[in-house]
Design brief:
Strand order of the largest sheet: 5-2-1-9-21
Family: Belongs to the NADH dehydrogenase family.
Structural class: alpha/beta
Bound molecules: flavin-adenine dinucleotide
Helix content: 25-40%
Radius of gyration: 23 Å
Distance between the termini: 45 Å
Catalytic activity: a quinone + NADH + H(+) = a quinol + NAD(+)
Enzyme class: oxidoreductase
GO molecular function: NADH dehydrogenase (quinone) (non-electrogenic) activity
Shape: globular
Low-confidence stretches: none
Strand content: 15-25%
Number of strands: 25
Number of helices: 11
Largest sheet: 5 strands, parallel
CATH architecture of the largest domain: 3-Layer(bba) Sandwich
Keywords: FAD, Flavoprotein, NAD, Oxidoreductase, Transit peptide
CATH topology of the largest domain: FAD/NAD(P)-binding domain
Length: 441
């Protein structure tokens, strides 16, 4: 049987090498095999909530850790160590005998044959959950993809930290003022929560750390530009939050350009429709699209690269394939175009699908997903944050404390919470960021 399947696959993909049907070294048991692609917010919370005795669970991820993406910007700006926002993916599985993790990259799914193809072999499934998240979207601008720095993974964040710190070190060695400025300037593309948080954190680094670390540099000439295409920052939040965030950033001397389109970047000059900005670093937070996998029918993938699923999380047209999180467009009555690409959505969908899979195994009718929107928030820096809730909108120190508490509570792993709390307290009282290391990349 496996040989036949391989032959069929070979016929379908004449040119492409087909990996051996090795089930990734996992022996089939009497339990139905549930394969989960992606150990991000959706996948991890699905596993935690799942009645594991009902299934043989196989979690697949190209990394061996979960990444708490909302705090990546703090790793990028020397505020937190990378370990404190990561969580080993083997940990939630290792107490359960028929649960397995494989660190491989999925290259294709073959839903007609219940197969997942990876760079380590091919695996059969009885149920499949696609939770591969999103990837950075450069909207087809190749030069930006080549030269700008994304922030989607821990290595991206460390890459940004390296580049920022290395540029300051290099600026010390140069006498030409134009080249010096180019090395010290930072452009952030995208005025959503990630762009706003990065701009605030870099501005505070410039204010509190640089004068002590780099007394020989004219810190004032280091400019931080935040570029946003739409008329205001934080376009998905209330006007009040957008205006307050802008005010906070201006207090920190961030140069904000809204209604401005970035047209290109060659690694030295950012071209916008409002003029050029010399900068050796451009951080790209301009957008994401779903991390879809080849193999699903074309009509199932939206223009934003999300997989169409019905309200129960089931991918349209397949009985045993589900999708959750950023990659999924779960269409419900309240969200006919899918839900926002947020951690809270992915977490709720993961927990919801755990219940639905158990119901399915027991022959019960599947439930429909209802997203509970608990609010949105963004922080600019110490005592500067904005919070939008259904009934209240507030900002300032209270919002900042709410932001800190929610992120601490949501961080995965007790040790991570403790280490992060200690780091934040240290940074707050000492105006310091201890992890400003340049690690060779
Ligand atoms: C910088 C940044 C800041 C953010 N800040 C916030 C915030 O403040 N609040 C908020 O609510 N949301 C925030 N988000 C969004 C939030 O992180 C996402 O909505 C959330 O991570 C989605 O969860 P997910 O499980 O769908 O995907 P992810 O958490 O992205 O996980 C996907 C997993 O799939 C794996 N994977 C992908 N492709 C493959 C493949 N081919 N083979 C194997 N494995 C694969 C990845 O390695 C990853 O582990 C932020 C995102 C970023 C990038």
């Amino acid at each position: 049987m496996p040989e036949q399947v391989i032959e069929l696959l070979k016929e379908q993909h004449e040119e492409k090498p087909v990996r051996e049907l090795n089930d990734l070294g996992i022996r089939k048991t009497e339990r139905p095999r549930l394969v989960i692609l992606g150990g991000g917010f959706g996948g991890l919370h699905l596993i935690r909530a799942l009645r594991k005795q009902d299934f043989q669970v196989v979690l697949i991820d190209k990394q061996n850790h979960h990444t708490f993406q909302p705090l990546l910007y703090q790793v990028a700006t020397s505020g937190l160590e990378a370990d404190s926002i990561a969580y080993p993916l083997r940990k939630p599985l290792n107490a359960h005998p028929d649960c397995h993790f494989r660190m491989v990259e999925v290259t294709e799914v073959v839903p007609e044959k219940n197969l997942v193809v990876t760079n380590g072999g091919t695996l059969r499934y009885d149920y499949l959950v696609i939770a591969t998240g999103a990837r950075t979207n450069y909207f087809g601008m190749k030069d930006i993809e080549r030269h700008a720095l994304p922030m989607k993974s821990i290595s991206d964040a460390i890459g940004i930290r390296n580049r920022l710190l290395r540029n300051y070190e290099e600026a010390l060695l140069i006498n030409d003022p134009e080249q010096k400025d180019q090395l010290m300037n930072v452009v952030i593309a995208g005025g959503g929560p990630t762009g706003v948080e990065l701009a605030g954190a870099i501005a505070e680094f410039k204010k509190y750390i640089m004068p002590h670390d780099y007394p020989d540099l004219d810190v004032k000439s280091a400019k931080i530009h935040l570029i946003e295409l739409t008329p205001e920052l934080l376009p998905a939040m209330s006007d009040e939050a957008s205006q307050k965030a802008e005010e906070y950033l201006r207090q920190l001397s961030v140069i904000i350009k809204t209604n401005t389109k970035i047209e290109g970047y060659d690694g030295r000059v950012v071209r916008t429709d409002a003029g050029n900005i010399p900068a050796r670093v451009m951080l790209w937070t301009g957008g994401v699209s779903g991390a879809i996998l080849p193999g699903l029918g074309k009509g199932l993938v939206t223009k934003k690269g999300r997989i169409k699923a019905n309200a129960s999380g089931r991918v349209k047209g397949y009985d045993n394939v589900f999708a959750i999180g950023d990659v999924a467009q779960i269409e419900t009555k309240n969200y006919p175009q899918g839900h926002p690409q947020l951690a809270s959505v992915a977490v709720q969908q993961g927990k919801f699908l755990a219940t639905n899979l158990t119901r399915h195994i027991k022959g019960k009718e599947l439930k429909e997903f209802h997203y509970i929107n608990k609010g949105t928030m963004a922080t600019v820096g110490r005592k500067k944050a904005v919070v939008d809730m259904k009934k209240w909108k507030f900002h300032g120190a209270a919002a900042w404390l709410v932001w800190l508490s929610v992120h601490l509570y949501s961080l995965v792993g007790f040790k991570n919470k403790v280490v992060t709390f200690i780091n934040w307290a240290w940074n707050y009282f000492n105006h310091d960021r201890e992890t400003r290391l340049i690690i060779k990349d």
